[in-house]
Design goal:
The complex is a heterodimer of chains A (534) and B (320).
Chain A: H1 2-14, H2 17-20, E1 24-35, E2 38-49, E3 53-57, H3 64-71, E4 79-84, E5 87-89, H4 94-99, E6 102-105, H5 117-121, H6 136-149, H7 165-177, E7 186-190, H8 198-213, E8 217-221, H9 225-231, E9 234-239, E10 242-248, H10 254-262, E11 280-289, E12 300-308, E13 312-317, H11 323-330, E14 339-345, E15 348-350, H12 355-360, E16 363-366, H13 370-374, H14 381-385, E17 394-395, E18 398-399, H15 401-414, H16 431-443, E19 449-453, H17 461-476, E20 480-484, H18 488-494, E21 497-502, E22 505-511, H19 517-524, H20 529-533
Parallel strand pairs in A: 3-8, 3-9, 6-7, 7-8, 13-20, 13-21, 16-19, 19-20
Antiparallel strand pairs in A: 1-2, 1-4, 4-5, 9-10, 11-12, 11-14, 14-15, 17-18, 21-22
Helix pairs in contact in A: 10-19
Chain B: H1 2-19, E1 22-23, E2 26-27, H2 32-57, H3 65-82, H4 87-111, H5 116-135, E3 140-141, H6 153-160, E4 162-165, E5 168-171, H7 172-190, H8 192-202, H9 204-209, H10 214-240, E6 242-243, H11 251-261, H12 273-292, H13 297-319
Antiparallel strand pairs in B: 1-2, 3-6, 4-5
Classes of the chains: A alpha/beta (534), B mainly alpha (320).
């Protein structure tokens, strides 16, 4: 009972009226952060009040996560100063942040699936009996109390892995609350609803409201405007690492916010292409990707589109909208049992149940992550490049090496791959050249449809421009290209048409003339009514 | 890396020659007959280790080879003595049994998505049990001769005989060792299947997305490993004149040791047949010289452990 009373006092302390409204909880003053060669963040100054929900918005790469890593003690070498309740705050690490009552809930949950809820809540600071053994009774008792605070009706003995994702998220928040002698002052939520059902999100909002009444300050990072406008008191916008401004939610509307987030003029790496589409290369009808029925997981819902030869079709959408899943599903990565719908290649209906069959049908796929999915980094450039097209170099099962070498040499020259030779292990090349090898591997299969997922991720500007040029050339040569990208300029300047996905559904199909950042973002943030009903 | 194990082999040869006991002014270690003995003993382990190398290259492991050797030894001995089916059918049946058991290893691993450590551990247990049941718990002795109940002597000359070459009596197992090695080296270096093996071990996801039939490749390497364990069983029973359910105990560890000393990475995707063959030779020389120096077998085991760690640590250092 003693612990219960102590918990109660904490709540009272947080409810002190003087702190509930006026006081500043956290202040950023000229905060900046450099990475080698990049200024990720510069001169960010704003403050978060006690009992406030403060939304932080910006495009991918705007500097939101960098800023949050500074607040949660992950980055300790930054410019400028943080003030917590008026006093300068210097953190030496994530543990230190907890000591000051700062907790962060990541988009990806960091729970150990085998532990029970109670064990999770007390991980690292388990209560002991006087014999030094675990005081599991006290642990369960205190766990029940804190679970009640986040209105999560599960047993403290329940293993975390049996909980739904939304419930796991609440466990994370409960863990942030249950810090014993360090009461929670600031809660950072990074896209907390991306994996939640509508009902689960609702419960999360209630908990955030409760914390707000208790005087806890929250920083809420989200791409979902409906949530931001509903929850936030004020909104701070970051763009390209710079502070744009802080606005009371009441004085802001969606389109104004989008303009602030996007802001910059489009960097035109390429002139708009003169599209000359030929006959239909691929048609997709009612493509769905089923998930395991848990409500979690990113499925696809009834997607139809067609793609012509010589056309570059963009696939846009926020993180988790289903861009990668769409390309993977077309390429046969998922089992037949999970996939519904029909795929026609050059007018013929094809069953694609595996990447092998996809390649046979004339598809090629450059994956999002070249290190784990595209390339075999310990093997040579040559072995990587010809892996998908090996059949063409075999005679009676034996590799015809002169032909293979010649084909590799041709690709090296065509794509201007900088490599000391074709026997060099591919892992030693620069990112841009690795990506070109991945592309060459696909080209050697002579595909009619090319699926590109983030083809310029993590490579420098020069290599980027070269890859854009190549994509153009390929399209002009009659290839049909489906290009998924999270980079707006890429989608806008490269693509003839754009598909926009949101929550696994096709929410817009725009021609190049129709496609603007605003319209794409609008379609990408559409929430569908059917999901909310679930 | 291969040069490293070759260097180790040469160094070990030199040290062994120096440490060798001298009998009537002749270096016992360097006697041609002793050297031939070494390669004969290296052959059995070496053949198994080549199959093991294939499996490890795909990122798997095959713990069942020793037990499969026992099962195949019992099978071959039973075929020769109990069922009197003759040399050729015996060889065929035994190799098929080994390949079948390996196929089961691979199929269970890929279909049920288990780690091969688990499936082959289970096969180890099951194969030993089956071997014991089949043999009735006793070794089946082989009596070679022309009698009605005897095993055909042709079997012995096929697997334990000697061939005179340049005035030396070359033991037959060496030919099997070298031919299997050459064939598998060609397979790995020059065929599409070989490329697929390295690709699966190097990065399974990337291999699958490149259209490599990952499961089929895995099943084939396990079947191959099982078949090579069966070949080793034929050599084994011809040498010791009996087939027993306790044959081949611990052989899987020797095979793994040979592969690893030869530069094969247990993470998959890295390794060569030549390296593994050198690894098998190194282990055989080590056994031989320690035996010649009359070092207690317990110390031999300890020393072998130390050398495995040293060999691999040196290779890792070179990689960095």
């Amino acid at each position: 009972m003693k612990e219960l009373r102590r918990g109660g006092r904490n709540i009272e302390h947080n409810l002190l009226p003087t702190q509930a409204t006026a006081a500043t909880m956290l202040e950023f003053r000229y905060v900046g952060k450099n990475f080698p060669g990049v200024q990720a963040l510069r001169d960010v100054s704003f403050s978060v009040d006690t009992g406030e929900v403060h939304a932080l918005v910006g495009e991918n790469g705007a500097g939101k996560s960098t800023l949050m890593k500074i607040v949660s003690g992950v980055y300790t070498d930054y410019h400028g100063t943080l003030f917590l309740e008026g006093r300068p705050l210097t953190l030496c690490g994530p543990q230190d942040a907890r000591r000051y009552g700062i907790a962060i809930i990541h988009q990806e949950l960091n729970l150990i699936p085998e532990l029970t809820v109670a064990e999770t809540l007390f991980l690292g600071r388990e209560p002991r009996t006087r014999w030094g053994t675990l005081d599991s009774r006290r642990m369960k008792r205190e766990a029940s109390t804190v679970l009640e605070r986040v209105s999560l009706p599960v047993s403290p003995d329940c293993p975390v892995k049996r909980l739904r994702v939304g419930e796991q998220q609440l466990v994370e928040i409960a863990r942030a609350l249950e810090q014993g002698e360090h009461p929670l002052r600031l809660l950072i939520l990074d896209e907390p609803t991306s994996a939640l059902s509508a009902a689960e999100a609702e419960r999360l909002f209630e908990v955030i409201g409760d914390l707000k009444r208790q005087g806890v300050a929250s920083i809420y990072i989200s791409h979902k405007f409906d949530e931001i406008f509903r929850l936030a008191d004020r909104i701070t916008v970051l763009r390209d690492g710079a502070y744009i401004g802080t606005y009371p939610t009441g004085e802001m509307n969606e389109s104004a916010l989008i303009r602030l987030m996007v802001g910059r003029p489009l960097t035109d790496l390429l002139p708009p292409q003169t599209a000359n589409p030929g006959e239909e290369a691929m048609r997709v009808e009612g493509l769905s990707l089923l998930t395991n029925g848990t409500g979690y997981g990113r499925g696809l819902d009834n997607i139809s589109f067609s793609l012509r030869r010589g056309e570059i079709l963009g696939v846009a959408g926020l993180m988790g909208a289903g861009r990668t899943e769409l390309l993977e599903t077309l390429f046969g990565v998922y089992g037949r049992g999970q996939v519904r719908g029909r795929i026609f290649i050059a007018g013929r209906k094809r069953h694609i149940g595996s990447p092998q069959e996809a390649i046979a049908a004339g598809l090629a796929f450059v994956t999002e992550d070249r290190k784990t999915q595209s390339l075999i980094s310990i093997l040579s450039v040559r072995h990587n490049m010809t892996l998908a097209a090996l059949k063409g170099f075999l005679r009676a099962g034996v590799i015809q090496q002169p032909a293979e070498r010649a084909a590799v040499q041709e690709q090296v020259e065509r794509l201007r791959i900088k490599t000391p030779g074709d026997a060099v292990t591919v892992g030693t090349l620069s990112g841009g050249n690795q990506q070109k090898v991945a592309l060459a591997k696909c080209l050697l299969t002579a595909p009619s449809v090319l699926l590109l997922d983030e083809p310029t991720r993590g490579i420098d500007v020069g290599a980027k421009a070269e890859i854009y040029r190549l994509i153009h050339e390929l399209a002009e040569g009659g290839a049909a290209i489906l290009l998924a990208s999270s980079e707006m300029p890429e989608i806008l300047s490269l693509c003839d048409r754009v598909l926009v996905l949101s929550h696994g559904r096709l929410t817009a199909e725009l021609t190049q003339a129709e496609a603007t950042q605003e319209r794409i973002l609008e379609a990408a943030t559409l929430r569908r009514a059917t999901r909310d009903a679930a | 890396m291969r040069f490293q194990s070759l260097f180790g082999l040469i160094a070990l040869l030199l040290v062994s020659a120096l440490l060798s006991p001298v009998n009537n002014g002749r270096n016992v270690f360097l006697e041609p007959q002793n050297l031939l003995n070494i390669v004969r003993f290296a052959s059995e382990n070496g053949i198994i280790a080549i199959g093991m190398t294939l499996v490890i290259l795909t990122g798997g492991i095959d713990l069942s080879v020793g037990a499969l050797l026992a099962l195949c030894a019992v099978c071959a001995a039973a075929c020769l003595m109990r069922y009197q089916v003759g040399t050729f059918p015996t060889v065929l049946l035994t190799l098929a049994l080994g390949a079948l058991a390996g196929w089961v290893n691979g199929t269970v691993t890929t279909r049920l998505r288990l780690q091969s450590f688990i499936t082959t551990l289970a096969m180890l247990s099951a194969a030993r049990g089956a071997a014991s049941l089949w043999s009735g718990g006793y070794a089946i002795p082989l009596a070679f001769g022309m009698g009605k109940d005897d095993a055909p002597p042709g079997f012995r000359s096929l697997f334990a005989g000697q061939i005179s070459l340049l005035g030396l009596d070359i033991p037959v197992p060496l030919f099997y060792f070298v031919s299997v090695g050459a064939a598998v080296a060609f397979l790995l270096k020059r065929t599409g299947f070989g490329r697929h093996v390295y690709a699966v071990g190097g990065n399974e996801t990337a291999a699958r997305l490149s259209g490599v039939p990952v499961s089929r490749v895995k099943v084939i390497v396990f079947a191959f490993s099982g078949m090579l364990a069966a070949l080793a069983a034929l050599l084994h029973i011809a040498l010791v004149n009996q087939g027993s359910h306790i044959d081949g105990a611990g052989y899987e560890l020797n095979a793994i040791a040979a592969a690893v000393i030869g530069g094969t990475s247990l993470a998959g995707g890295v390794g060569t047949v030549l390296g593994t063959m050198i690894g098998a030779l190194i282990l055989a020389i080590l056994d031989n010289i320690l035996g010649l120096r009359n070092i207690q077998s317990e110390y031999q085991l300890i020393l072998k452990g130390i050398i495995i760690v040293l060999a691999v640590a040196m290779q890792r250092r070179q990689e960095r």
